[in-house]
Amino acid sequence: MMQGYRFWLAAMLLSALCASIYISAGNGTMVWRTLAATAKLSIESELASLGKANAWLNSQPLRAADLRGKVVLIDFWTYSCINWLRTMPYLRAWAQKYKDHGLVIIGAHTPEFGFEKDLDNVVWAAKEQKVDYPIAIDSDYAIWNAFNNQYWPALYFIDAQGRVRHQNFGEGNYEQLEVTIQQLLAEAGYDGFDRALVSAHGEGAELAADWNSLRTPETYVGYGRAERFASLGEPLLDRPRVYGAPTKMNLNAWALVGDWTMRRESAALNKANGKVSYRFHARDLHLVMAPAERGTPVRFRVSIDGQPPGMSHGIDVNDAGNGTIDEPRMYQLIRQSAPIRDRQFEIEFLDPGAEVFVFTFG
Predict the structure, then answer these.
(1) Is 270 left (phi over 0), alpha (psi -120 to 50) or beta?
(2) Is 295 exposed, middle or buried (CB count within 10 Å of its CB: 0-12, 13-18, 19+)?
(3) Residues 105, 78 share a domain
(4) Which range of residues forms the domain containing residue 141?
(5) Do strands 30-32 and 71-77 pair parallel, antiparallel, or not at all (unpaired)?
(6) How far apart are alpha carbons 265 and 113 in whole angstroms?
(7) Residues paired with residue 269 on neighbouring β-strands, in sequence order
(8) pTM
(9) Which of 3, 15, 211, 288 is deepest in the core (most CB within 10 A)?
(10) Does the residue 320 lie in any domain?
(11) Chunked in runs of 10, what are the mean pLDDT values of the chain (362 residues)?
């Protein structure tokens, strides 16, 4: 039974676009691994064109020809993705350590949700998340498609001759990835950098996930990718409907309660006091949310097992569970201490106008 559960969870997590990959450790635990191979650095392809970026932040437009002689790390990201956020301590550390030794990191921001196509939102998020290396705005997926990429986050390592030598999809494996950077720099004739590997520790939402206790997969709310919907009443697509609470929720099921409109990417609350419930098993619970109108905040209150979260509150709520949606982004709502077990989460919106996109966990 446990073995079957492990394979089910692995399959569920493989379906997430913010890539997280699990394998069985053979002892009843789930161990996370990236999709990257650890083979020697073969020549995989040439650096794809960056010329079709919609805009650039932190830099003038960069062309492949401008980057010859440099080691380049292309990082595909979208700012609300928890898997990308948890890689940021290492990306910042590498950018700082190797910027004067031949490394150029370029963040290709390719949006998952419509609000991530808004340049003002990306500018705000880059500042908030301290992304100060060059950013290619890839809202039309031109760079994404040129690389035949499929994941957030995804890293492509390009040598000084403009050849892709290594790829890495998902989180983790940071020591091997930094060794890859050093190897490519050495091949290009760069030296003088400290060979000791960086030690980066995330805080807040950037803290590494507690993979051993994680039993709940990323869950989309919009009908385009929604699964395990448990509300009373069949979903009514793109039209308002009042949904009722189920009498019982199984693990990893979720429900809308109140007057909502289910859209392809999100569920939008039409009247105040609507709720979303989720039965989950993880240390952290995050929810990507947005106010329907910029500049019109939406107040909310969260509970866990019917009580205020107390010390189990996330960084975006207080111990009473109160918070406010003020920007379209990911909100950390729960961070609990061990022991981790099945819990019932609920968020109630005290104002209309909330949009809810995806639950993620850590």
Answers:
(1) alpha
(2) exposed
(3) yes
(4) 45-206
(5) unpaired
(6) 7
(7) 260
(8) 0.88
(9) 288
(10) yes
(11) 31 42 29 38 69 96 92 98 98 97 98 98 97 98 96 97 96 97 97 94 95 97 97 93 95 98 98 98 98 94 98 98 98 96 98 98 98
